[in-house]
Each structure stands twice: as structure tokens, then as C-alpha cells.
């Protein structure tokens, strides 16, 4: 199984495509929908689902294009069910990025359980703090964590947006993410990949440096 990082849009939000043979999962298609559809077709990949780590505008801008083209289900935490269609909740009106909306989610997630889509199985980790419905998807078979805007290389997600909480975010990271295997690759919503051990050792937000 392979994953590809595709930074999209003005904020260079990381969309990830996790593939096996010709099947794939698309995480956080944030922008540039036509180009993303073209890339998937050029690589002869068949998307099975869109998995959203959360519903901020920079993570959902290309959801409609993928949904229209491939007619695949959208997964999202139930706490952000209304955000996809509401620019005041998803933040696009706040940041003057134009009105960004997406189709409603087909499957609302509310439990920390296993999620299997085609050949892919994930452990769902509810990691609020950056937003109330933030989910991190742990892909044990590939030793990777699709972390959204919860944890970055040398940093953590911002908590000054509606529904954010610095204390809750740190609880999520320490309680859920730092207990994963140290060699786990962390695939964040922005910036380069990192690992649990790297952030455990050197992230100043987690170590008080």
C-alpha cells in the first residue's frame, strides 16, 4: 500500500491518497477539484471514499468535485455535520476565501472503532481541540496516522477558531497519539510528514522547551 501527499490550494492543505492496486481512499481533498480528479484518473485509481479529518474550509473544497465524479461516500465526525454546508462554521466566510461548501456527509462517525473501507482498515481516534469533530485515522498496516490539523512537525494545531480548545488538543495528543507506536509516521494537514518519536522528543509544544 502506498500514500501520496498532494498539497492543494492557497493554504497548501495536504490531501492524501492511500492506494492499494487500483483502489484508493482520499483524505481531506481541500481544493483544486478538477486537477485532483485528473490526477486520480491519470494514475488509474478508483476512489472508494472521502475521509475527512475535520470540516474546515481548506480541507473540504474539492469534496464536491470528487463526489460528483465518482459518487463515493463522505465520512465525517457527527459533531461537524452542519459545517460542510455552512461557511460561517467551516470558516470560509471568516477568512474571506469565498463561499466554500461541500455536500453533506453520507456517513457520520461517532465512536472510536475500526473502520473498514475496501482493503483499508483504520482505527478511529477522536482528537478534538483544533475543532470539536477532529478525527485522526490510524492505519496500523502501513504504520501511518492521518492526523489532520492536530499535530504537525514541531507544532500543534491552532485552537483560536470556534470550538477550539488548547487544553483539549493537548489532552488529545498526549492521550491518543503519543500512545501509538513510536515509529508511526504522522501525516499532518499542512507541512512535511513526521513521526511520533520525533514529536515526542523535540516538539516544543509537547515538551515545554
TrEMBL record:
Signal peptide: none annotated. One of its GO terms (molecular function) is metal ion binding. InterPro entries: MBL_Glyoxalase_II, Metallo-B-lactamas, RibonucZ/Hydroxyglut_hydro. Keywords: Hydrolase, Metal-binding, Zinc. Its cofactor is Zn(2+). CDD domains: metallo-hydrolase-like_MBL-fold. Residues 12-190 form the Metallo-beta-lactamase domain. SMART domains: Lactamase_B (SM00849). PANTHER family: HYDROXYACYLGLUTATHIONE HYDROLASE GLOC. This is Glyoxylase, beta-lactamase superfamily II. The lineage of its organism: Bacteria, Bacillati, Bacillota, Bacilli, Bacillales.
Amino acid at each position: 500500500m502506498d500514500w501520496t501527499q498532494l498539497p492543494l490550494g492557497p493554504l497548501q492543505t495536504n490531501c492524501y491518497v492511500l492506494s492499494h492496486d487500483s483502489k484508493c481512499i482520499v483524505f481531506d481533498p481541500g481544493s483544486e477539484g478538477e486537477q485532483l480528479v485528473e490526477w486520480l484518473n491519470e494514475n488509474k485509481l478508483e476512489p472508494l471514499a472521502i475521509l475527512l479529518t475535520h470540516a474546515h474550509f481548506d480541507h473540504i473544497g474539492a469534496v464536491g468535485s470528487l463526489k460528483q465524479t465518482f459518487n463515493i461516500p463522505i465520512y465525517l465526525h457527527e459533531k461537524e455535520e452542519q459545517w460542510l454546508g455552512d461557511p460561517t462554521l467551516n470558516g470560509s466566510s471568516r477568512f474571506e476565501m469565498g463561499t466554500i461548501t461541500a455536500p453533506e456527509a453520507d456517513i457520520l462517525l461517532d465512536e472510536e472503532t475500526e473502520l473498514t473501507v475496501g482493503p483499508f482498515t483504520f482505527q478511529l481516534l477522536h482528537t478534538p481541540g483544533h475543532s470539536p469533530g477532529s478525527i485522526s485515522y490510524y492505519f496500523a498496516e502501513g504504520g501511518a496516522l492521518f492526523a489532520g490539523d492536530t499535530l504537525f512537525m514541531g507544532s500543534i494545531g491552532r485552537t483560536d477558531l470556534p470550538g477550539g480548545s488548547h487544553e483539549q488538543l493537548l489532552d488529545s495528543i498526549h492521550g491518543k497519539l503519543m500512545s501509538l507506536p513510536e515509529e508511526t509516521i504522522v501525516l499532518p494537514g499542512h507541512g512535511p510528514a513526521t513521526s511520533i518519536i520525533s514529536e515526542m522528543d523535540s516538539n516544543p509544544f509537547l515538551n515545554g522547551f
